[in-house]
Amino acid sequence: MSYVLSRPSSSQRSSLLLVVVGVHVGLFVLLMAARTVAPQIMEMPLIVDLLPAPPIDQPQAKAQPVVKPEPVRRPQPTTKTPTPVLETTTSNEPAPAAPVAAPPEVKPAPPTPPAAPAISNARFDADYLRNPAPRYPPISRRMGEEGKVILRVSVNPQGSADALEVRSSSGSSRLDESALKTVRNWKFIPAKRGDTAVQSWVLVPIIFKLEQ
């Protein structure tokens, strides 16, 4: 025995296709509806129970110490003793005031004067001055006169000799005169007080000695 399956007709196939499509569309609609529905949150009422406040411990009053009343002492009768009577005299003159020592007078210390700048001595031995040596007098040379003369020279701020005098003679007036005549034309480095040239005195020794 054999069964022969007949092929479905075109109308049956169309109806089946519609059914399948409808099923898919229904499922799609259900899925979309399930996604768009927002879950609802149930609001529960908030219930607060108020608890009674704890009792506050009140400080206990301290018991005051019981003060016993002191017994009343009755005054005892006192016997009066006789006192001597003193004769006093009153005076209207005020009592002399005690002498007050006057404070010692403090004298202010005198101001310290500013230190004066140091003074440098005048000089005649600088090489750049080129002062000539005194001339040996011919007569003194022939007579063999020698000696050392010391001149005291007053040098002005310009470096010239204002005044000369013989401080110590050589023993020969000719030698002394030759030294005075030469040194009178010398140039000096004037003395200075700080950076200022000042007048001063300087000693100039000159030795006259014959060559052997």
Give an overview of the whole structure.
There is one protein chain. With 212 residues, this protein is of the alpha+beta class. It has a domain at 119-208: TolA/TonB C-terminal domain. It is 21% helix and 16% strand. The protein contains three helices and six strands. It has helices at residues 10-36, 138-143, 173-183; strands spanning 119-120, 147-155, 161-168, 191-193, 196-198, 200-208. Strands 1-4-5 form a three-stranded antiparallel sheet, with no helix packed on it. Strands 3-2-6 form a three-stranded antiparallel sheet, with helices on one face. The chain starts with 9 loop residues before the first helix and ends with a strand.
How would you sum up this structure in a few lines?
The protein has 212 residues and is α+β, with helices and mostly antiparallel strands. The chain has helices at residues 10-36, 138-143, 173-183; strands at 119-120, 147-155, 161-168, 191-193, 196-198, 200-208.
Summarize the topology.
Layout (H helix, E strand, L loop, with lengths): L9 H27 L82 E2 L17 H6 L3 E9 L5 E8 L4 H11 L7 E3 L2 E3 L1 E9 L4
Antiparallel strand pairs: 1-4, 2-3, 2-6, 4-5
List keywords for this structure.
212 residues, alpha+beta, TolA/TonB C-terminal domain, three-stranded antiparallel β-sheet, 3 helices, 21% helix, elongated
